[in-house]
Design a protein that fits this description.
The structure holds two protein chains of two kinds.
Chain A (H helix, E strand, L loop, with lengths): L6 H18 L2 H29 L3 E5 L8 E5 L1 H28 L5 H20 L3 H20 L4 H32 L4 H13 L3 H20 L8 H7 L2 H34 L2 H22 L3 H22 L1 H31 L7 H4 L2 H4 L1 H15 L5 H16 L2 H30 L10 H8 L15 H23 L1 H13 L3
Antiparallel strand pairs in A: 1-2
Helix pairs in contact in A: 1-2, 1-4, 2-3, 2-4, 3-4, 3-10, 3-13, 3-20, 3-21, 4-5, 5-6, 5-10, 6-7, 6-8, 6-9, 7-8, 7-10, 8-10, 9-10, 9-12, 10-13, 11-12, 11-18, 12-13, 12-18, 13-16, 13-17, 13-20, 13-21, 16-18, 16-20, 17-18, 17-20, 20-21
Chain B lengths: L1 H9 L7 H4 L9 H55 L12 H14 L4 H9 L1 H22 L9 H13 L6 H23 L8 H19 L1 H5 L4 H27 L20 H25 L20
The chains are: A mainly alpha, B mainly alpha.
Chain lengths: 520, 327
């Protein structure tokens, strides 16, 4: 049974190997291999989750012969295992659900390279979740950054290239700031592993004028990861990035990549700075404010958006604002809720990004609202899942979004600060109304009878336009049984998780609470 | 003008490179005509935009400059302040040097490498280096996706036509002086690269630097002797296999060491006599693997930027021409 302790290592090293292997396979084999491999990884991380909840304590795993503080280390607790499991399920669903569109969007000779990047991304996600060393965090953050640019650029149309360049510039700025933060913390503490670093930070804070240096380095680090994850003033890269990527990439980028950055930040607050110290620093107030501003401005931008992908992207900015609000609010419940929202949003947004291309598909491949009119009746399954996800985003009971908002309100009460309480309640109220405004408007629109883009007979024209790309290949058809299954299975899984999070939210919250207890 | 363009780009309203990347503007026009048309279109656009945004622009550009200067000044102040407050290394801050001291004092004994840096990156903190070598691989894959030519790529027959024409004037296999000098230099460079690579555990050097020298040697060879000369021995298949073998060897070797180390098992890897060429346990084979990956990456970048393929593989259809997609 103790063999399960090796599984976190396997998830990282085998993913790295899989990436190189996928380069050698052809496209379809690489996809098949990746799907099987992701299932295997899900089993591994499920086993880790089971193991840590049975033993009731987190374990560290020395990478090599040299224990901390000399060698690298990874660490697994309930929280890490839960996130790894969720991320892998979402990754698998995104790969399955977006496969048909991948065949259209990606040049066939490069599909194996796409899966190479997906596996590298998996390795990076796993490493960021398990790592107990801040510099390992930086190295795999680089892989994550490059791989996410790669899965964006793979569509090879002018717009995605431009979006990828902008995404990369901003991401590298974020990485640079993060690295500066790490360097500053390293020169203060002399350590890179999280536990010795925290001890050193505690000493520095206790000394005269030490707090200010820690605050500055932490601020630089926070801004870096804030840019990468789309915190309030830095969310303007989102619409192009999420809106132009192929559906699998959009789902992965919005649901996993930005969340991995947030989790790394969370880990640094808890395990490098120490959460008690962090709550004394002014940074958490800043995060609280920026989170609320993100919620409001993201929603306002989403209302003004003219295409459905831009709307979803801006709504991501708003939802990430919720997470940062939870981080800034503090208190045991605040952190739990932030993590709950992180999972809830990943599940919902990934399905939304997998669904909208199907609505566009029956509307002349247009993502503009005026063309989407009536698309819910033309593709009924996509319409249903879009509606369900919208309900979750708006915060209608029995869905995950509702529970998240409820817990934010509870957390605000528990902080016992009147200002925080009022600000949170007001922000939640306004943001919910704004969410309802743009999501329900879209739901009504896709069910309103109308010309829309329907008369364009999209699949045919699209097929003709792309005939020379898919020479010799049949045009991927969404109406065949396997085509439907490849959408229905991931959609049902993600909706199932969403309903589970909504109906049995206390189970998840309980797990997260236990995870947080062994996280510090 | 540029600031306004930048602002519109920031808001996602425009494509700065719209006409440059899509490859949609008449490819069969002669180059002169195309340039003229493009210039005219740009002039019209400039005039039109200029009217609309004239007032707005000034405000924005003023605001932008002030904000940029303020940001830079703030960051400078923050970092200067930080530098002034960081405790000095050494006696004043014993904790900060605790780890480094152990590396210096016991590195030779524990890793078997005379070069402590190698011992540190490939033994103490090998996991980070495992990630780092895959960063290079990720970059290579991204560049491959972006630049390797295929039916969907943005390079067109139009570009190919002019490229070939230019190459007739400036042949890629260099003139006689370059060929001669290259012939003398390349073997020395490659030999030096191998030396750096194999001596990583003994003297400054190792996989990353040795691989870079090897890669540079290959690049010089390709640019003095022509791409065809490299294609004769470095095919796409060989390239892929090298990268595959090197990286998977790295992953599995290090995975094995991590596994045995964490489970308290004996790993049966001899450390060797410090100072001998076969010493330092896994450091030498890992250096070779890293070196191969770095050399592959460097040459791959060169080759992809230069002609959009690696090892003479021209598109998946094998023809090397008629990639006229983009209309």
């Amino acid at each position: 049974m103790d063999f399960i302790r090796n599984f976190p290592l396997f998830t990282i090293v085998l993913s790295l190997f899989s990436s190189v292997l996928c380069m050698m396979l052809d496209g379809r084999r690489a996809k098949r291999y990746t799907v099987c491999y992701e299932c295997f990884l899900i089993a591994l991380s499920g086993a880790v989750l089971w193991y840590v909840s049975v033993t009731g304590e987190a374990f560290t795993y020395v990478m090599g012969e040299f224990p901390a503080p000399w060698g690298n280390e990874i660490r697994a607790g309930i929280l890490e295992a839960l996130l790894a499991l969720t991320f892998l399920v979402i990754l698998l669903c995104s790969v399955l659900g977006g496969w048909r569109f991948l065949l259209i969007d990606v040049e066939h000779s490069k599909i194996n390279l796409y899966f190479t990047l997906i596996n590298l991304l998996t390795a990076a996600l796993m490493a960021l979740i398990w790592t107990n060393d801040i510099f390992t965090g930086y190295v795999f953050l680089e892989i994550l950054t490059l791989a996410s640019c790669g899965i964006l650029i793979v569509r090879e149309i002018g717009r995605t290239t431009l979006a990828a360049v902008r995404y990369m510039v901003l991401n590298l700025l974020g990485s640079g700031l993060f690295l500066l933060g790490v360097v500053l913390l390293y020169s203060l503490t002399g350590h890179l592993l999280m536990v010795p670093m925290r001890e050193a930070v505690a000493e520095i804070i206790a000394a005269d004028g030490g707090a200010i240096t820690v605050t500055f380095s932490l601020a630089v680090l926070t801004i870096g990861l804030g840019i990468k994850s789309g915190l309030f003033p830095f969310y303007f890269w989102m619409p192009d990035t999420y809106g132009t990527a192929t559906p699998t990439s959009a789902a992965i980028l919005s649901a996993l990549v930005s969340k991995a950055y947030i989790f790394l930040l969370f880990k640094i607050y808890w395990r490098v700075i120490g959460i008690d110290v962090f709550q004394e620093l002014p940074i958490h107030d800043l995060l609280f404010g920026l989170g609320i501003l993100g919620m409001l401005f993201g929603s306002v931008s989403a209302i003004r958006a003219n295409s459905i992908h831009r709307m979803l992207a801006f709504s991501s900015a708003a939802q990430i604002g919720y997470i940062y609000m939870g981080l800034g609010m503090g208190g045991p419940m605040g952190y739990v809720t932030a993590l709950f929202q992180l999972i809830a949003h990943s599940v919902t947004k990934s399905l939304l990004f997998l669904t909208t291309p199907r609505l566009a598909r029956v509307s002349g491949d247009s993502l503009l609202f005026q063309n989407l009119q009536g698309s819910g009746t033309r593709d009924r399954s996509a319409g249903i899942f879009f509606t369900l996800c919208s309900f979750s985003m708006v915060g209608i009971p029995i869905f995950a979004g509702f529970s998240a908002k409820l817990f934010f309100a509870v957390a605000a009460v528990e902080t016992g600060k009147l200002g925080v309480l009022f600000a949170t309640m007001l922000a939640l109220a306004i943001s919910s109304v704004l969410n309802a405004l743009y999501f329900l408007r879209t739901v009504i629109r896709i069910y309103t009878a109308g010309r829309g883009g329907a008369d364009i007979s999209a699949p045919r024209i699209y097929a003709e336009a792309h005939n020379d790309i898919d020479a010799g290949e049949p045009v991927p058809e969404t109406r065949t049984l396997s085509g439907r299954l490849s959408y229905w299975i991931p959609a049902l899984i993600l909706t199932g998780i969403n309903l589970f999070l909504g109906l049995f939210s206390w189970v998840t919250v309980d797990v997260i609470q236990r995870g947080l207890m062994m996280f510090a | 003008m540029n600031v306004e363009k930048f602002r519109r780009w920031l808001n996602g309203e425009t494509d700065l490179m719209e006409h440059m990347l899509d490859g949609k503007q008449g490819h069969d026009l002669p180059r002169q005509d195309q340039r003229r048309l493009q210039r005219e279109a740009e002039e019209v656009a400039v005039v039109r935009m200029g009217r609309v945004i004239h007032s707005e622009r000034r405000l924005f550009s003023a605001w932008y400059r002030v904000a940029a200067v303020l940001c830079c000044l703030t960051l400078m102040a923050v970092f200067l302040y930080m530098v002034a407050h960081i405790t000095r290394y050494g006696a004043e801050n014993p904790r900060a040097t605790e780890v480094a001291e152990r590396y210096v004092e016991r590195g030779l004994e524990e890793t078997g490498a005379v070069n402590i840096v190698s011992g540190m990156i490939l033994d103490y903190r090998a996991f980070d280096t495992l990630g780092e070598s895959h960063v290079l691989f990720t970059a290579l894959i991204c560049v491959m996706i972006l630049l390797r030519r295929d039916r969907k790529n943005m390079r067109t027959a139009y570009e190919d036509y002019y490229r070939i024409q230019e190459e007739d004037y400036f042949p890629t296999d260099g003139d006689s002086i370059a060929r001669r000098v290259g012939g003398i230099l390349v073997p020395c460079i490659l030999l030096f690269g191998v030396y750096i690579l194999l001596n990583g555990q003994l003297s400054p050097g190792g996989g990353f630097s040795g691989g870079a020298v090897l890669g540079a040697g290959l690049v010089i060879f390709a640019s003095t002797r022509g791409d065809g000369a490299v294609d004769r021995f470095l095919t796409k298949r060989l390239f892929q296999r090298t990268a595959f073998c090197a990286l998977s060897f790295y992953s599995f070797a290090k995975g094995y060491v991590f596994f045995t180390g964490a489970n308290g098992l004996e790993n049966h890897i001899p450390k060797g006599t410090p100072g001998a060429i076969l010493s330092g346990g896994l450091i030498l084979p890992l250096d070779i693997a890293v070196g191969l990956v770095v050399a592959c990456t460097m040459f791959g970048f060169y080759s992809l930027f230069r002609r959009g393929s690696i090892g003479g593989e021209l598109g998946e259809d094998g023809s090397g021409n008629a990639r006229t997609k983009g209309e």
